[in-house]
């Protein structure tokens, strides 16, 4: 498994970001890093996605930023050029998977059926998305359908909430969970950054409660300290 995906286990919940206006990128990056979830899957559902990734990466280099809803090799190229560190797609497109692999880019395609999981294994993958998680039967479905595939671990996304995410995080087959409830577009547009920060902290605390990690990810502590020191130097 790619080292970058191993970091997902400690982060636990990966914020899924749909952003129509890239002007919010830097502020969201600060909120995620400063409140315990230093990661973002920026979806290519909007034309702003590549710019959002680029601005977040440049503003907070310690933030683990990836691209979601990548459907084509052209979108993969845009994500890579913008600085994405991983790629996620809703379904399993062998062309996109092989293209990302050839570029050395970690990729997690969406799966739901045994056939798709076997196809993922055939492509050399051991980490996949399970989408849409809740409508497809949730954790019970993952346990049932994944039983023959001991080498696979999953990132369920779709329908996850603070109320049901604990059960997913507690299961050994779940590397991380994807969730969009923390970073709603309307809250960004209304400038409710305190509200977003509260939801991010709540999610980070859930991970800490279930998996016993500190709220601020230790993998990023050094990078964050370096960033803060640089800011202090600029200010002084």
From TrEMBL:
One of its GO terms (molecular function) is 2-dehydro-3-deoxy-phosphogluconate aldolase activity. It is an enzyme of class 4 (lyase). Belongs to the KHG/KDPG aldolase family. Pathway: Carbohydrate acid metabolism; 2-dehydro-3-deoxy-D-gluconate degradation; D-glyceraldehyde 3-phosphate and pyruvate from 2-dehydro-3-deoxy-D-gluconate: step 2/2. Keywords: Carbohydrate metabolism, Lyase, Schiff base. PANTHER family: 2-DEHYDRO-3-DEOXY-6-PHOSPHOGALACTONATE ALDOLASE-RELATED, 2-KETO-3-DEOXY-6-PHOSPHOGLUCONATE ALDOLASE. NCBIfam families: eda, PRK05718.1. CDD domains: KDPG_aldolase. The lineage of its organism: Bacteria, Bacillati, Bacillota, Negativicutes, Selenomonadales. SUPFAM superfamilies: Aldolase (SSF51569). The keyword Lyase applies. Its EC number is 4.1.2.14. InterPro entries: Aldlse_KDPG_KHG (IPR000887), Aldolase_TIM (IPR013785), KDPG/KHG_AS_1 (IPR031337), KDPG/KHG_AS_2 (IPR031338). It catalyses: 2-dehydro-3-deoxy-6-phospho-D-gluconate = D-glyceraldehyde 3-phosphate + pyruvate. This is 2-dehydro-3-deoxy-phosphogluconate aldolase. It comes from Selenomonas ruminantium. Homotrimer.
